[in-house]
From TrEMBL:
PANTHER family, sorted: APOSPORY-ASSOCIATED PROTEIN C-RELATED, GLUCOSE-6-PHOSPHATE 1-EPIMERASE
Regions crossing the membrane: none
Record's protein name: Putative glucose-6-phosphate 1-epimerase
EC number(s) per entry: 5.1.3.15
Family statement drawn from the similarity comment of this UniProt entry: Belongs to the glucose-6-phosphate 1-epimerase family.
Coiled-coil stretches noted in the UniProt entry, renumbered to this chain: none
Native source organism of the sequence: Psychromonas marina
Keywords: Isomerase
Reaction(s) this enzyme catalyzes, per UniProt: alpha-D-glucose 6-phosphate = beta-D-glucose 6-phosphate
CDD domains found in the cross-reference section: D-hex-6-P-epi_like
Superkingdom per UniProt: Bacteria
Pfam short name (any one): Aldose_epim
């Protein structure tokens, strides 16, 4: 999924992990392990590729993705935080959609490597720029576990003296063979349809993808299963710390409207997101932590 990128190695982090850059100096962490390959960017704390050796990639990246330090990356797992969608009116106007974490520079904090895979910790801390956008001090940790499974755990630690409330999503773009080959099951029956004025609707727990979808499902009561008949594989998705799952495909018109997605890009991706979107969001008391997680196996 990243073979189209032209990268140059600049440093070695561990036996399987190297720091590489493109011609514009954009930084990538490249993981080349016996059991898997993966890639992420410190910009946005953004996983852009994960593939177990000998299998299809699990994570989708747009071939037209723009790697710009001021923009979010199309594909992978963007980190929507500390709000999902537009910021609430109490925070003011002109704030970036889906928060600032996905366009901030994260720091590599720790790497653990074994014969089974790697665990990478990235951190983002509040600073003068974030405090202009959101008036809380915080430490945000993204722990990425790459082995037979893919696990992303986003840990919000409140460093302020007052409680904070946040909304978030692990905006996971999954790689699929074709929409008509997909059978999705395990969803909650109730969902808010963003393509119908966010009306609360009731559907089935199974879903076939044959048109644009942008729905916020109430939290699933069981594991979510994505069966791909052409790839002959089933992904099991387990989300924790969330109150909802977002399912999104831009379909024909949506893909054509994106400068950073090929017109046929919708045919090979489907977003299933572990999210906090309901009510007032997730409160974290002063000095405490909350984790939002997605596990894909």
């Amino acid at each position: 999924m990243i073979s189209h990128l032209s990268l140059t190695k600049t440093d070695t982090v561990s036996p399987s992990i190297s720091l590489q850059t493109d011609s514009n100096g954009f930084e990538f962490l490249i993981i080349e392990h016996d059991k898997l390959s993966a890639a992420l960017t410190l910009h946005g704390g953004h996983l852009i590729h994960f593939q177990k050796t000998g299998q299809q990639p699990i994570i989708w990246l747009s071939k037209s993705a723009i790697f710009d330090k001021n923009k979010a990356i199309r594909g992978g797992v963007p980190i929507c935080w500390p709000w999902f969608g537009p910021a609430g009116p109490e925070l003011g106007e002109g704030l970036p959609a889906h928060g600032f974490a996905r366009t901030s520079k994260w720091a590599l904090d720790n790497v653990q490597e074994s014969v089974e895979g790697v665990i990478i910790d990235l951190k983002l801390n509040s600073n003068n720029e974030t405090l202009k956008l959101w008036p809380y001090e915080f430490e945000l940790t993204l722990q990425i576990t790459l082995n037979e499974q893919l696990k992303l755990e986003l840990i919000t630690e409140n460093k302020s003296d007052l409680p904070l409330t946040y909304r978030s999503a692990l905006h996971t773009y999954l790689n699929i063979s074709a929409p008509e080959a997909i059978h999705l099951s395990g969803l909650n029956k109730q969902f808010y349809n963003s393509l119908n004025n966010k009306c609360l609707e009731t559907g089935d727990t199974t879903l076939l993808i044959d048109q644009a979808i942008d729905s916020i499902y109430k939290k699933a009561n069981t594991e979510i299963m994505l069966k791909d008949q052409q790839f002959q594989q089933t992904l099991t998705i387990v989300n924790t710390g969330n109150d909802s799952e977002v399912v999104w495909s831009p379909w024909v018109e949506g893909a054509a409207a994106f400068a950073d997605m090929p017109d046929n890009g919708y045919q090979t991706m489907l977003c299933i997101e572990s999210a906090i979107t309901q009510g007032d969001g997730q409160q974290v008391k002063a000095g405490e932590k909350h984790s939002l997680t997605t596990l894909i196996k």
